[in-house]
Each structure stands twice: as C-alpha cells, then as structure tokens.
Amino acid sequence: MKNINLFLILCLLCLTKYAQAQQIEISNLKKHIYYLADDKMKGRGTGSKEVFKAADYIEKEFKKYKLQPKGENGYRQSFKAKVWKVKVADSIRDADNIIGFIDNGAALTVVIGAHYDHLGTGHQGSSKDSLGVGKIHNGADDNASGTAGLLELARYFSTNKEKEPYNLLFIAFGAEELGLVGSKYFTEHPTLPLEKITAMLNMDMIGRYNPDNGLAVIGYGTSSQWPIIFKDIQAPIKFNLSKDGNGGSDQTSFYKKNIPVLFFHTGGHPDYHMPTDDAEKIDYQALKSILDLEKSVIENVMKQSNKMDFIWTN
Ligand SMILES: [Zn+2]
C-alpha cells in the first residue's frame, strides 16, 4: 500500500512537471527581467562588462534548454559596433549575438529574435533624459522584456515532446540600440543559409501592454500567408495587425533580405529610453498572454507546407 501511494505521488509529480514545461511561466519572465534590468547590470550598454554578463546569462539558459550552439564560437557571434550619436573615446565596441538552434532535421527554419543590449549609463547617446548621462538606464521594457520572451519561447519549444516540422533558431541580438548592428551583422554573416528561413519574429518592448492601444503586430503585409496563419488566432489581449516590414527594430534587417517578418511591440510610454524603465513597471500577465499569442503564431507557421512567400510593403 505504501509503495502504491509513493508511486501515485511520483506520477503526480511527473505530471505537474510535464504540465509546467508546457507553459510560459510568469515566474521565469520575472526572474529574467529582474536579473537583466537590475542596477547591477548598469543598463547593458554595448561593450560594457555588464552586457557581457547578460550574454553569459542568456548563453547559460540556452545551454540549460539544450539548444544547439549556432554562433561562430559556440553560441557567440562576435562583431564590432560603433557609437555614432555622440563623441566618445571608445567609439568602437565589441558585441555579440547569442544564437541557439533546435534542429528538427527540417528543410526550413523559423527565426525568433530579441535584442538584449540597452543604453548603459547614457554615455552612448539615445537617452530621452536631458540629464541622463551617468544615470543607469535599466531597459526593463527595452528590451529585457523581449529577451525574457525569447528565453521562455526557447524553453517552451525545447521541452516540447513532439518534434516540430520546422527548425527553430533563437537569436539574442547585440548592439540594437547602436543601429540594429547585431541583426544586420547576422543577415550579412548568417550561420544558416538565409534562403532556408521561412519567417522571422522579433520582440522589442513587449512589457508595457496598454489595453487602450493593444499590442502592435507589425509586418502582416510581408507575406500573403500571414492572413492564413492568423485566421484562427485567439488571444486574451487586444492586438492590431499592421502591414509594414520596415520599422525601428531588428526585423528590418531580415525584411531587407526578403524574409517575411513580424514585430511584436507594446508601444511607447513616458519611461521609454529613460532611467525609469524598471522591472516593477512590467505587466507580467499581459507579457505572458503576448507570448502565448506568439506561440500560436509560430505553431501555425509550422503548419504551412511550403516556404512563405515574401511581399515588399514599402
Ligand atoms: Zn531602445
């Protein structure tokens, strides 16, 4: 009897563990954002000691999910980025993309991306605070939120029992704030042939959902297949589809290479590029809903039997 009870308890534990693995977890999102947007990370400015620490953190998570390294040196793809908005002595800086792969042996790959750098202590330009130089810009929404989303989607798909009919490539981009440098570098030096990419989904600032405006899903016009993919998509949040392939974030680099894109974005707010973009201001419940929506979109992309066609929108 005792043994049977023990067996039942073990079964229950296994089931709970299995159920947990199949969900986007708010506790994980919080853990990532509070880590990346902590004052100790000093705003993750490109070339700083702290942004390399953030890169280590992402790499460790990728490793934990058993993603295959798909950079040029393990998970890393290193490049140089230039500070050009302001004059500084150290204007040429080292940066990394962190790249992990779920290889399902498929012909086509879906790319999921988010940048993890931010403005540091305001010395690289772009701060909206006129007295921002020297202040830590935590960048919780921009873009610890997207990075946390990237990590949770990577964890989710890596624990999926069924083999998907597509491969998945997860990229945490460096040096976005210096002009989309990491994503441009990747599309110029891809670690997997670009023609094998069916679509790219980018997350930049997805933490400040405003129910009046809804979530912006940009890039809907870049393939005739997006309307098919979105046909049965339901979400507990409001979302607005707009056509443009071009936009102020990393999906633009892929769009320019004729790859269908989507850009998920909860919009501007008074803390945008300010030292006050902090972790406690993130709407974690809405963030989870956005990721659930993305999960459904990715799953529908993987139901397409052919590579998506591409349309220029502007
Ligand atoms: Zn930004």
Small molecules in complex:
zinc ion
Q: Unreliable stretches, pLDDT < 50, 5 or more residues?
A: none
Q: Alpha-carbon distance between the termini?
A: 70 Å
Q: What summary fits the major beta sheet?
A: 9 strands, mixed
Q: Specify the number of helices.
A: 8
What is the tally of beta strands? 9
CATH architecture: 3-Layer(aba) Sandwich
Structural class: alpha/beta
Radius of gyration: 19 Å
- Shape field: globular
Q: Write down the CATH class.
A: Alpha Beta
CATH superfamily placement = Zn peptidases
| Order of SSEs | HHHEEEEHEHEEHEHEH
Helix amount, in percent?
25-40%
CATH topology: Aminopeptidase
Keywords: Hydrolase, Signal
Protein name: M20/M25/M40 family metallo-hydrolase
GO molecular function, one term: metalloexopeptidase activity
Pfam family, one: Peptidase_M28
